[in-house]
Predict the structure of NAD(P)/FAD-dependent oxidoreductase.
Amino acid sequence: MTGEPAGTPYWEPSELPPQPQLHGVVTADVAVVGAGLAGLSCAYHLAERAPGLDIAVLDAEQPAAGASGRGTGLLGPRAGPAVDRAVRRFGPRTARRMHRASERAVRDVLDLCARLDVPCGLRPGEQLMATRSAAGLIALARRARACRDIGLDVPVLTPAGIRDRVGVPYRAALLHRPAATLDPAALTCALARACADRGVRFYGRSPLLALRPGDLVGPELVLPHGRLYAGQAVLAVNSAAQALDLPVGTVLPVEVYALATEPLSASAYDELGGRAGHSVVDAVALAPYFRLLPDRGLVAGGGAATLPSGLGAPRLRVLRERAWAGLERWLRSLHPELARVRVSHRWSGRIGMTADDLPVVGPVPGHEDVWYIGGCCGHGLALSVAHGAYVAAALLGEPEEGEPLPWHRSRAPRLPVRGPVRPLLRAYVDTLGSLARHTC
């Protein structure tokens, strides 16, 4: 993978538990690799349900250093492809289950924030899937029809209904509830502290180099300065699965972009829906979206995506600058005051994408007692927390409530990501971003 994500996010990690580097030989009942929302949620729920369990969390850096601390903090229901595509691909019953599971995931995060009782900027509100373009209107009409046909409560908003919430001339919107916005780094760090309070050990600056079957029982995790032998392991490593050569199919590392502004005037903040905590996502794939911040600033994301693998540093810098510039142009078109506001932060992050838009949550093929979590395709804030709790229950042998997750599986579809096909894949992702920029 080329380099690391760029820029400094608006969010700053808060107080964290001690995280010594792992040296020598260490053992644990359960090893969790990845101190993002998925891994920490898994460790937290394990420690809650089995207080005597010896749990170790390892990370290549520290909690909130990866995607969980570099997101934009939109908490809304979405899992897998858009609902109309989900109906065509998987059938109405499964599409309904998928959406219901994503709604439960949002409620679970809201409940978790209440239990942790920490300031993470949580603002319950509504999420508008809106459009200003003809292409977006067509997409929204298909989704509205699909939601109605399978019995989902997703109201359609007219321009007047949108203006009551957000003062941007959108032509139509779908209203998603439950939804909220929050500080993703604060939630991640709060989870880390809650884990430590329950006896979970942390090891920072300890990247996983290899996974091997243990000599007696459980896996052996190979690290730069030591080894960890565990009875069970959870690899909440998202798109790093490719670098580790895990047999979980193709989870592509895709770089996405965000920026934040200085505080707006009180009137502009109110007009854009800041008091109510609304967020707005454009209906076109990869199109930009925005949310308001408690300090009256604005965060925007989307509009472009990059496959960083195989790109040299100079080319990647050019693509990043182009993505941020396009996102800023879109942002300034939303409201007259935004034409003058200063952009205070620009950053990028890495998400995991799969060919069928579905996450991968399941045992790793060929590795007994090892589970993998990843591939949320940009919808990981709610899903990651839900996946962590789901895997914790599976490791403890707890009976499932209802049906398994629709994406409980061990592999995503494979894609030819190396050799002469990689430029074609990159061109496809670039084209999606270009279409999004020209239709929103």
Notes: DSSP finds ten helices and 17 strands in the chain. The mean pLDDT is 92.
